[in-house]
Specification:
Blueprint: E1 20-25, E2 28-33, E3 36-40, E4 46-48, E5 54-59, E6 63-65, H1 67-76, E7 79-83, E8 90-93, H2 102-112, H3 114-129, H4 139-160, H5 180-203, H6 219-229, H7 233-242, H8 248-263, H9 265-278
Parallel strand pairs: 1-5, 2-6, 5-7
Antiparallel strand pairs: 2-3, 3-4, 7-8
Helix pairs in contact: 3-6, 5-6, 5-7, 5-8, 5-9, 7-8
Length: 309
């Protein structure tokens, strides 16, 4: 049960589709004071962060986080992400989801069925490119077709914005070695990964159980983000790269934040995830009558399926 201050209602999650996308915090201590989630700088100045109305908070270099702040973020369903400078490295992530297991079991059931998995991959392809993929192709073959089309899309969008583009190229150990377009893309995709993971957890699914991608903690995050990437962060990144910028990562993050709000991406994420998994044509996991019922009944939730309340 969330703490309740006198005269204040307990913290309750709001729906993901009604939230803003993200904020980046840097150089300060993240704490809870007077029931509010705040960033306190070295001079003691407090900046209030509306954590309950955000999908995720990106914690950059120089931040310290108290136990109370982490707890409050989890209670209101805001994902905390510990990232590097410019938001282009992900070191760790919180987990505000996990309120139920039925959707997680359903996702695993679809992923473990070879034919269902292929149907989901085909649906992802259709959502991403606006047309069904070629018939009678395996997942590996669809990956190859996807890679070829993606390279062409990068070239087309770069040409639209007058950006010189060779290929996607970056060094995870030294991001600054990359050219400006690649640095902008890295910053933009990091933003998209953040809100995608927040939506996946809010819906009650696992970020690790992917369909095109596999074997990584964020495999499903990459699957979901790829569906939206070329309609959002890629054009935003190339637009920033085409102009004069002294801080390409920051400018790209600002552009992505504005674009997410304008295109209402958070409203689309969870319905799209559900739509992709339904394409597997697998029935939901039946309730096991032999399972012991909850000792403490669940309260009626105000947030999404995966939000704790």
């Amino acid at each position: 049960m969330p703490p309740r201050l006198k005269g204040m209602a307990p913290a309750r999650p709001i729906m993901m589709k009604e939230r803003s996308s993200m904020v980046f915090l840097q150089y300060g201590q993240v704490d809870v004071q007077d029931g509010a989630f705040v960033l306190i700088d070295e001079k003691g100045v407090r900046v209030h962060v509306p954590v309950g109305s955000l999908a995720c908070v990106m914690l950059e270099t120089g931040t310290r986080v108290t136990h109370e702040a982490v707890k409050l973020a989890a209670q209101v369903g805001c994902l905390l992400l510990w990232v590097g400078d410019g938001g282009v490295r992900l070191y760790a992530a919180g987990q505000p989801g996990g309120a139920r297991s039925d959707k997680l079991l359903y996702q695993a059931k679809v992923a473990l069925d070879e034919h269902a998995r292929l149907r989901v991959v085909r649906k992802m392809y259709e959502l991403r490119f606006g047309e069904p993929p070629p018939a009678r192709r395996s997942v590996d073959q669809l990956r190859g077709i996807e890679g070829s089309r993606v390279r062409k899309m990068y070239q087309t969008i770069a040409k639209t914005y007058g950006v010189s583009w060779n290929h996607r190229n970056y060094d995870q150990n030294d991001w600054d070695k990359a050219d400006i377009p690649n640095r902008c893309l890295s910053a933009g995709t990091a933003c998209l990964y953040g809100i995608s993971e927040a939506a996946i957890l809010a819906a009650g699914y696992s970020p690790a159980i992917g369909f095109i991608h596999s074997g990584k903690p964020q495999s499903f995050v990459y699957d979901v983000a790829d569906v939206f990437k070329f309609d959002t962060v890629v054009p935003a990144a190339f637009k920033v790269a085409s102009g004069r910028t002294s801080n390409p990562e920051r400018d790209t993050r600002t552009a992505c934040r504005d674009l997410f709000r304008q295109t209402r991406v958070l409203k689309k994420l969870i319905p799209t995830i559900d739509d992709m998994l339904r394409a597997g044509d697998v029935s939901p996991v039946a309730k096991d009558d032999g399972v012991v019922s909850n000792a403490i009944p669940n309260r009626k939730q105000t947030g999404d399926a995966g939000h704790r309340s």
